[in-house]
Amino acid sequence: MAGTTGTGTRRGFIGGAAALTAAAALARPAPAAATTPRRNRRSTAARTVAVLGGGVAGLTAAHELAERGFRVTVYERKDALGGKARSMDVPGSARGTRRPLPGEHGFRFFPGFYRNLPDTMRRIPFPGNAGGCHDNLVPSTEALMARIGREDLRLPFSRLGNVPPVLTPDAFRRAVTAFFELQLPAHELAYMADRLLVWFTSCDRRRTQEWERIPWWQFTGADRMSSDYRKLLCVGITRNIVATKAEVASTKTVSTYVEAFFYNILDRGADGEPDRVLNAPTDEAWIDPWVAYLRSLGVEFRTGLAVKDLRMSGGRIAEAVLQDAGGAGQSVTADHFVSAMPVEHARTTWNAQVRAADPQLARCDRLMTDWMTGIQFYLTEPTPIVHGHVDHLDTPWSVTSVGQAQFWKGRDFRRDYGDGTVADCLSCIASEWDRPGILYGKTAKQCTREEVAREVWAQMKAGLNDTGNTVLSDAKLHSWFLDPAVQLGGPHPANDEQLLIHPTGTWYNRPSAGTAIPNLFLAGDYVATDIDLATMEGANAAARAAVNALLDTVDSPAERCTVTPLYRAPEFEFLKQQDEIRYGLGLRNVFDLG
């Protein structure tokens, strides 16, 4: 059962639309975003740093520190580096000289409003690329919203060539209405445009003190609108992109992402197209060259070691206690420690003494994570459903997918991977694991791994094969691969690699990169950064902030890392200033009509 190639005849383009599929821009700069070089301070050459975690945050911290002369060792609990961003080999899938089939935690994309992560990628050498690994990013051109029993929505997805030169409120409303032109009633589109105008013109205090406390569902008036409005603009955005529920998701977090996408589409403050993917499996295009470059800088890597405890002495972290897969422990000492693990793992290493030294660490216990996990389907024929991502809108498990082979230029799947019969990889993510499926009537967590694969496949077919064209065929399905971090089939399902989610109030519990412990720094997507969403960009920005905090602590002469904030439209700054006055007087935003 694998897919076929053509689907264009049954999906019409929605003119002028661009899928704003996510959530939005916090206008406050990230903590510790210093960029000014410091002078005359002590040498860093003899200083040692233990980076605890080898994902995007840990590798970024190691990169910035090594380039500034620190002696860095990265400790990673997995046997591979890259964290949730890495790709992985499917065991037993290779034949002859081919590589194993590429699996992954879940597909990833690199919006053009990412600025810090692309800067790092440019600084990672890659053979034949003048721009390093950054040159391995390629844009998609469209997106698809697949609906069960109804015509699918195929949307152009790129920066607009004809954009409003000045963002007046009227120009803003017209632009948003065009972007959201998804066969919704005109009055509902107008209402959404007005709600977003309220956000775009809200002052920073209103964003963090009012909208952070309001669920996206309430902010968008979902209860008063049509089912399509709720499904497309309320539930679809939060479940499929932010991995949380619209009824509880913070308006600030969702709106921050929407704002960033909007400006990206208008080509403002953008590094590239709104949706970009890698032109090869992640390890080949990015992670392996990154690790090789860091080794050339003297960074050492020790994998298969999990951090169990951070022990203090004299008000500082004296040692980290690590444990290998066999249960053997060891102690690691360093001048400084950068905790670069996901929050659900990092907080287990903070004992009572560490927590007492800095109250913000204890608040991290209130941060919530959820399952957003990938599964790959390997197909015996190329299956480019759309040149970009697919949102399987009506699926109970909130499935999204992308056909990868079409973007992997210069690679031939049959020649390079697997057993010679696989021609494509449909990489999918299931974001809802607590809702019954359509085959077994069970939630994903109640299913076996085999049942999860069958359910996801069936849910995608329900939306893609429902208008007479067999897009996904069972006969062409070669095999599948589910993220091994997920443990199913027993009484206690577990997921070792979860994702931070953002219900209302989450912002107040996110820590800064620097801590009250002078040699402990935090780098991870849960740290408070401008993007306010668990992303690779957030992890990268947090690591830069952690390095800056470390440099300040040791009074280093090294240049500080640049931490680039999200774009702010100058046209709206006056309206934000006026809103600051109104907020102080207890008044609504001037465009907030309820």
UniProtKB/TrEMBL annotation:
InterPro entries: Amino_oxidase, FAD/NAD-bd_sf, TAT_signal, Zeta_carotene_desat/Oxidored
Designated name of the protein: FAD-dependent oxidoreductase
Residues annotated as domain Amine oxidase: 56-550
Segments passing through the bilayer: none
MF (Gene Ontology): oxidoreductase activity
